[in-house]
């Protein structure tokens, strides 16, 4: 009899332990502070959570998680508990498409924050659009994602797609004007053939030439290249004052290092895809003087971002919020603001998908990055950018403007 009592007590303790463990796991994935009878709605994340660009993707995921936790803690949507559903796209279009298909098949998913890469977004957009799931990107900058392939006759292709960051149509010219103002008018361009890099260089080239500058060489690399000696030799012979690179830091860092080692001692400038401490680590000490544009003003300098930075720090996340954390936080809150309308009288999450898209189109609030609102294409109405320069082994803000 005593033996049976001990078994019963042990089973009870085990059940209690498992229950507590499960609650802890849910808290890490957005948490739940509401009643257990609450209906569930999920906000997905599609971003690179592994691989070379994971530093950016994890910052996005964590920032969305923070927004979800805050919404649950404040009971922002009475009767509903929000949960995070994060998927790793590995920065690959086919993997991103599979992630989108998985999220679209989950009836509790009502919105998605992502993607990081414009090339991945091209695969994800039609999947989420067919399911009427809102997609808000904190990082996609290719203009065609919102305005279609013919930018001379812009047409919104996917009504469910929005973004909180400004586009290459603004970022490229901002970089070009900076170099012209710094008397670096002869520029060589290099891009990685992906949607983001190609679009960025195209916008930069048009603006530089319109401003009186000259493209002295236009070259490309492959995304998986590691030895850039051939393209460096071609560019070096053109005697540029600067090299403008369209792509991301895993290639940009080594490219900068190899440029300087080969005697091409001019600044490498890129877009927000190279704006990360990892670029400096890869490029080494010779990266001082290299340049990058990034969306918005420096997060740490914005009074509007202080609450986000403080909450993120207090949240105890293992990874930094990185370049897009604040924009991901605002993207998640754009979805949450939409859900306050769409879920109010909804019987289930899936039935609120279309209404959520409509509601997000009309949101207007003060976010971590400043005012958050979208134009008729789904683009952010805020067009602020900053040029950063590598100084003493760190990115330092050099110029902020619109």
Automatic annotation (TrEMBL):
The UniProt record lists the keyword Cell wall biogenesis/degradation? no
Signal peptide start-end:
1-21
Q: Which InterPro entries match?
A: Leu-bd, Peripla_BP_I
Q: Does the keyword Signal apply?
A: yes
Q: Which residues form the Leucine-binding protein domain?
A: 42-393
* Pfam families (alphabetical): Peripla_BP_6
Keyword entries, A-Z: Signal
Family membership: Belongs to the leucine-binding protein family.
* Protein name per UniProt: Branched-chain amino acid ABC transporter substrate-binding protein
């Amino acid at each position: 009899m005593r033996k049976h009592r001990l078994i019963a007590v042990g089973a009870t303790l085990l059940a209690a332990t498992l229950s507590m463990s499960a609650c802890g796991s849910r808290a890490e994935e957005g948490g739940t502070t509401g009643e257990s009878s609450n209906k569930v709605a999920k906000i997905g994340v599609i971003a690179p959570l592994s691989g070379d660009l994971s530093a950016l993707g994890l910052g996005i995921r964590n920032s969305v998680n923070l927004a979800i936790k805050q919404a649950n803690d404040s009971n922002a949507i009475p009767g509903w508990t929000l949960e995070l559903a994060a998927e790793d796209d590995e920065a690959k279009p086919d993997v991103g498409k599979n992630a989108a298909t998985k999220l679209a098949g989950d009836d509790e998913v009502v919105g998605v924050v992502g993607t990081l890469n414009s090339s991945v977004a091209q695969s994800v957009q039609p999947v989420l659009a067919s399911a009427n799931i809102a997609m808000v990107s904190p990082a996609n900058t290719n203009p065609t994602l919102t305005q279609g392939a013919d930018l001379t006759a812009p047409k919104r292709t996917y009504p469910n797609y929005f973004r909180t960051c400004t586009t290459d149509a603004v970022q490229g010219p901002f970089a070009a004007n900076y170099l012209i103002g710094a008397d670096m008018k002869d520029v060589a361009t290099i891009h990685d053939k992906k949607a983001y890099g190609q679009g960025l260089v195209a916008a930069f080239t048009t603006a530089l030439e319109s401003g009186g500058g000259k493209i002295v060489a236009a070259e490309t690399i492959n995304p998986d290249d590691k030895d850039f000696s051939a393209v460096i030799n071609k560019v070096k012979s053109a005697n540029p004052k600067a090299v403008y690179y369209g792509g991301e830091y895993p290639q940009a860092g080594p490219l900068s290092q190899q440029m300087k080692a080969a005697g091409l001692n001019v600044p490498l400038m890129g877009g927000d895809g190279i704006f990360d401490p990892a670029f400096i680590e890869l490029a080494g000490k010779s990266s001082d003087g290299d340049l990058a544009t990034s969306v918005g003003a420096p997060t740490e300098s914005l009074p509007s971002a202080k609450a986000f930075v403080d909450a993120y720090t207090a949240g105890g996340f293992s990874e930094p919020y990185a370049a897009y954390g604040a924009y991901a936080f605002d993207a998640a809150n754009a979805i949450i603001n939409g859900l306050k309308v769409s879920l109010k009288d909804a019987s289930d999450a899936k039935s609120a998908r279309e209404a959520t898209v409509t509601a997000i189109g009309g949101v207007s609030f003060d976010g971590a990055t400043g005012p958050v609102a979208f134009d008729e294409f789904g683009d952010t109405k805020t067009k602020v950018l900053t040029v950063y320069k590598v100084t003493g082994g760190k990115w330092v803000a050099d110029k902020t403007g619109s």
